[in-house]
Amino acid sequence: MSAIDYDIRPTTADAEDAPGTGDIENMRPLPRISVHAFCESEQLHQVMDRCANDRRMSKVNLRITGGSTAAAANMFASTPTPNLIILETRANPQNLLAELAPLAAVCDPTTKVVIVGHHNDIGLYRELIRNGISEYIVQPVTMTDIMAAMAAIFVDPEAEPIGRSVAFIGAKGGVGASTIAHNCAFGISNLFSVETILADLDLPYGTANIDFDQDPAQGIAEAVFAPERLDEVFLDRLLTKCSQHLSLLAAPSMLDRAYDFEGQAFQPVLDVLQRSAPVTVLDMPHLWTEWTRSVLSSVDEVVICAAPDLANLRNAKNMLDALRKLRPNDKAPHLILNQVGMPKRPEIGPSEFCEPLETDPIAIIPFDINLFGNAANSGRMISETDPKSPIAETFSQISHIVTGRVALKKAKKGGLLGLLKRK
Fold first, then answer.
1. Residue 207 above 60 pLDDT?
2. Residue 100 is inside which H or E element, if any?
3. Is the domain of 170 the same as that of 257?
4. In the predicted model, is pLDDT for residue 150 greater than 80?
5. Cα separation values, 7 from 4, 16, 94, 111, 375, Å
6. What's the rounded Cα separation, in Å, for the pair 373 and 179?
7. Is residue 422 part of a domain?
8. Whole-number pLDDT of residue 31
9. The pTM is what?
10. Cβ(177)–Cβ(170) below 8 Å
11. Which residues pair with 200 in a beta bridge?
12. Which strands, in side-by-side order, build the sheet including 135-138?
């Protein structure tokens, strides 16, 4: 198999799977706030429903009500106002301030108000801002408009940027998802000279410590079982240096206790990881639990690794369908086909495998027992074992894709599939 040449340059995230999201994938998660939206149109109600299902709104307590300015004033006359009121109104510019007066009389001083109006009037906008309205948006509005307005009010523009998170998970046990995750984490750290953290979330059976020939005394177990102690300083003590720019948060890989977790158990760990490094790679176990669903729904990128057989096809289809529902405003998960061309094993061809999944693989990795076996047994990555091999180049390509640095493809004749859509 020949490799694929890519024109590589930094790009923004591709949001074509979620029309109207614009640059929403680059938006920081919103803090823990309360929001009440009053919608007069079905269009805004649908937009707010989409916002409610977005992963960046996971900490937001959002309530959506059909009603006008008068309904909002009546409601808050007897109840405290939330952090933010989003209010749709069809009032004329001449009457809008008078319509807002009863609501202003009952609002707490700290409550912010965003008006969604139907009149594109710069004079009205300036008058509203002078009177304490945080933002005025003209219909038709998109989810990006609403969330950008909320972020402008509640997200500190001077805050440190948060890192990109990429989760790798196998469609079936034994398909090499961990090996791919480890090689990609190593590749990202080396290719871009960027600080990268590899977190092994398979606590009982994780292999990252073996693959990097490490024996750390502490790791992710100490972080997840002591969330009250977790901050950047504590995390730094748990990390093991694997190379110049790669650090490992290792799994204990021991069976001295049961590893049962609540749904949000790993969220504090993810928050600190994203504040601590530009890139975090998560090696996910082959599980489907509340906590794995929570992690997969909150990361920036998901990569599903599969081998070309029927069980993997079924599982990959189920996972893709489930994750598209969990992440309605994000790109679909990436797919990698691994262990392709194993001798004497009947396989499903790549095109037949991908057709029911309605997605193309970002990479097809051939079965090479000698290369992978030698790398694993020596505690080294593929690019260290044989840097000139086509598989090492494939891991480089995957590293570019999951970090958003691939602009377009240029496939050689006789190469793999047409793997990437043109940007």
1. yes
2. helix 93-106
3. yes
4. yes
5. 10, 20, 54, 48, 29
6. 11
7. no
8. 84
9. 0.79
10. yes
11. 283
12. 61-66, 34-39, 84-88, 112-117, 135-138
Q: Which pLDDT score is estimated for 295?
A: 96
pLDDT tens track for 84-115: 999 998 888 888 888 888 888 888 888 899 99
CA separation for the pair 38, 119 (Å, rounded): 18
- pLDDT mean over 274-286: 94
Which of 129, 154, 179 is a domain's end point? 154
Alpha carbons within 13 angstroms on the beta-carbon side of residue 364 total 22
Same domain, 169 and 260: yes
DSSP bridge pairs for 408: 7
**What 3-state class would DSSP assign to 74?**
helix
* The token pair that represents 269 in the structure block: 């760990």
Residue 23 pLDDT greater than 80, yes or no: no
DSSP state of 28: P
Dig out the tokens for 125 from the structure.
């906008």
By C-alpha distance, which of 287, 282, 334 is closest to 306? 334
Q: What distance lies between CA 27 and its chain's CA centroid?
A: 11
Instruction: Convert the pLDDT of each residue in 222-258 to its tens digit.
Output: 999 988 888 889 999 999 999 999 999 999 999 999 9
pLDDT of residue 24: 65
Same domain, 258 and 149: no
Residues 135 and 205 in one domain: no
Domain count within the chain: 2
Domain interval for residue 235 = 164-410
Give the end of a domain, one of 113, 129, 154: 154
Distance CA 277, CA 217 (A): 22
**Chain centre to alpha carbon of residue 299:** 3
Q: Is the residue at 3 inside a domain? A: no
Q: What are the tokens at 320?
A: 């893709």
Q: Which residues contact 308 (CB under 8 A, 6 or more apart)?
A: 337, 339, 340, 347, 348, 349, 350, 353
Average of per-residue pLDDT values in the chain: 86
193: its two tokens: 């000279």
Does one domain contain both 95 and 214? no
Asked whether the CA dihedral 258, 259, 263, 267 is positive or negative, the reply is positive
Q: Render pLDDT for 368-400 as a digit per residue (tens, 0 to 9).
A: 999 999 999 999 999 999 999 999 999 999 999
**130 Cβ contact list (under 8 Å, min separation 6):** none
pLDDT confidence of residue 26: 66
Written as one letter, the residue type at 341 is G
Q: What is the pLDDT, as a whole number, of residue 406?
A: 67
72 and 179 share one domain: no
- CA distances 216 to 199, 213, 238, 285, Å, are 13, 10, 8, 20
